[in-house]
Amino acid sequence: MRHRKSTLTLLIMLALLLYCIFAQAESALIEEPAQLARMLNDPSDTLFVDVRSEKEFNLMHIAGFQNRPYDETDWDHFDPGGRMTVLICQSGIRSAHVQEILVKSGYTQVLCCTFGVEDFLISADDVFREGYAVCIPCLLKQKTETEKELNEQ
After folding, report:
1. How far is residue 57's CA from residue 115's CA, in Å, rounded to a whole number?
2. Which residue(s) pair with 86 in the sheet?
3. Amino acid 61: pLDDT
4. Which residues contact 76 (CB under 8 A, 6 or more apart)?
5. Tens digits of residue pLDDT in 30-52
6. Measured between alpha carbons, how far is residue 139 from residues 15, 86, 132, 145 in Å?
7. Contact yes or no for 40/62 (Cβ under 8 A)
8. HEC string of 109-130?
């Protein structure tokens, strides 16, 4: 009888632990451009970081984001100053890697976009239809120039 109680207690603790891990992992992602648009409209106490290269950032970026290039930033010593940090890149890969580094360093308020800057800009019409006023300083012409420059590399 005693053995059953301890086994049951361990199973409950394991279930709670797994729930906490998966619940936290889900909340650490921004999966829809509209979610990001809402955050940009109310940026209080949030740090928006674009981890693409400086060249990529200068060619096309979302207003409100600051550039901290993935390869040029010492992420182990990055300090968001207690603010929620939102990460974005071109496809979600670099920002996911930075998120992993920051979480391992003890930061708990780190959100990663599962889409890239270009995906956000392409979906801008949908975002505007939902009524979110997002300032995007990029034109389609810049997108074309970006594609040309990246293809030349």
Report:
1. 16
2. 48, 111
3. 86
4. 101, 105
5. 999 888 988 888 888 899 999 99
6. 49, 23, 18, 10
7. yes
8. CEEEECCCHHHHHHCHHHHHHC
Bridge partners (DSSP) listed for residue 136: none
Alpha carbon 131 to its chain centroid, in Å, reads 22
* Residue 112, φ and ψ in degrees, nearest 5: -125, 130
What are the tokens at 51?
Answer: 């981890």
Whose structure tokens read 């674009």? 50
Answer whether 50's CB lies under 8 Å from 73's CB: no
Closest CA to 18 of 26, 28, 29, 7: 26
Three-class SS of residue 131?
coil
Q: Are strands 66-67 and 29-30 parallel, antiparallel or unpaired?
A: unpaired
Q: What is the DSSP string of 52-108?
A: S-HHHHHHS--TT-EE--TTTS-GGG---TT-EEEEE-SSSHHHHHHHHHHHHTT--
What number is the average pLDDT over the span 75-101? 92
pLDDT at 50: 96
